[in-house]
UniProtKB/TrEMBL annotation:
Family classification: Belongs to the alternative oxidase family.
Matching InterPro entries: AOX, AOX_sf
Keywords assigned by UniProt, alphabetized: Electron transport, Iron, Membrane, Metal-binding, Mitochondrion, Mitochondrion inner membrane, Oxidoreductase, Respiratory chain, Transit peptide, Transmembrane, Transmembrane helix, Transport
Organism name: Talaromyces proteolyticus
Protein name: Alternative oxidase
One family name in Pfam for this protein: AOX
């Protein structure tokens, strides 16, 4: 059995940046709000025993989504089966950036950068090069960041899918297959969140931050998608570029031995089942490879959707093509187009 030990975080005045009055409070509170679980290897039933941070009384920790079993029901199954990824496919994922080509792209990029800055501030993200060579991101810091990131990442697909669904209902026109892919993306992001919540659960402060962020983000995206869905897909494409960077860095740091608690730790059972992780490839590093591949697919899908005519074009990811020998967009990691498919390639 492996566990992440939770040592109290001390934040001293001298350790804080000069401008970080409020930020210091946020950081201190968000650190103390994160609690970790004792973590058993995959396929081992979870028990209620946990190691918790000194700042969160054990009595206040609860299982957010315990597996529900009733007299007649053992489990619930998802209609969306995750495509199977190979290690080689996941290893081939690259950090990339799609150049902005017009004002809509520039606006989307600027908004993505603003959101990234906000997330860095809230989760106290530090890049090694900005910390005088001293390594500062611990497992706990990463989990804080991942939980916040994944809790907002599941919003755009749901907003876009919902609005396209409503438009189809009120205009009595076909959607041409977009809704399914968008809702599947939202589901995938929520599975990321649930997976990481099996490793560490956020405390009250973090949950309040998520609540506030969701309120702002959902409503902002709702109106933005009504005005310019193309810009919103580009914006999500740029955010996913950042997500690929984040997970690439985590993988590199696990492999470099900077995150010792994750070196031998196994992925939670929920992840093993969802990604169908093969035996012998169920470590935290493997888990990060799966999540990064998902983010790379979201990056491609959203950049592709951002290239299309939002009202008329069918969804290339659910389309059946005339020429079956031609390369076409896939749901899996077998064919990744980092900057998305151009319209003339798929429509
Ligand atoms: Fe995600
Ligand atoms: Fe994503």
């Amino acid at each position: 059995m492996y566990s992440i030990t939770t040592t109290p975080i001390r934040v001293t005045a001298s350790a804080l940046p000069k401008t970080a009055g409020l930020r210091g409070c946020i950081v201190a509170a968000s650190y103390s709000s994160l609690t970790s679980l004792s973590h058993k290897p995959a396929h081992t039933p979870y028990h209620t025993h946990r190691s918790v941070s000194s700042t969160t009384p054990q009595s206040k920790i609860k299982e957010f989504f315990p597996k529900v079993e009733t007299k007649q029901i053992v489990e619930v199954e998802s209609a969306w089966r995750h495509p199977v990824y190979t290690e080689a496919q996941m290893r081939s994922i690259q950090v990339s950036h799609r150049q902005a080509r017009n004002w809509s792209d520039w606006f989307a990029l600027a908004m993505a950068r603003v959101l990234r800055w906000g997330m860095d501030t809230v989760t106290n993200y530090k890049h090694p090069s900005s910390s005088n060579g001293k390594f500062e991101m611990t497992e706990k810091n990463w989990l804080n960041r991942i939980l916040f990131l994944e809790s907002v990442a599941g919003v755009p697909g749901m907003v876009a899918g919902m609005l396209r669904h409503l438009r189809s209902l009120r205009t009595m026109k076909r959607d041409n297959g977009w809704i399914e892919t968008l809702l599947e993306e939202a589901h995938n992001e929520r599975m990321h969140l649930l997976t990481f919540m099996k490793i560490a659960q956020p405390g009250l402060f973090m949950r309040l931050m998520v609540l506030g962020a969701q309120g702002v983000y959902f409503n902002g995206l709702f109106f933005a998608y009504l005005i310019s869905p193309r810009t919103c897909h580009r914006f999500v494409g740029y955010l996913e570029e950042e997500a690929v960077i984040t997970y690439t860095r985590i993988i590199e740091e696990i492999e470099a031995g900077h995150l010792p608690a994750w070196r031998e730790m196994q992925a939670p059972e929920i992840a093993v089942k969802y990604w169908d992780m093969p035996e012998g490839s169920r470590s935290m590093r493997d888990l990060m490879l799966y999540v990064r591949a998902d983010e790379a697919k979201h990056r491609e899908v959203n950049h592709t959707l951002g290239n299309l005519d939002q009202k008329a074009d069918p969804n290339p990811y659910t389309a059946v093509y005339r020429d079956s020998t031609k390369l076409k967009p896939s749901k899996g990691a077998d064919l990744m187009k980092e900057t998305g498919w151009e319209r003339e390639e798929v429509i």
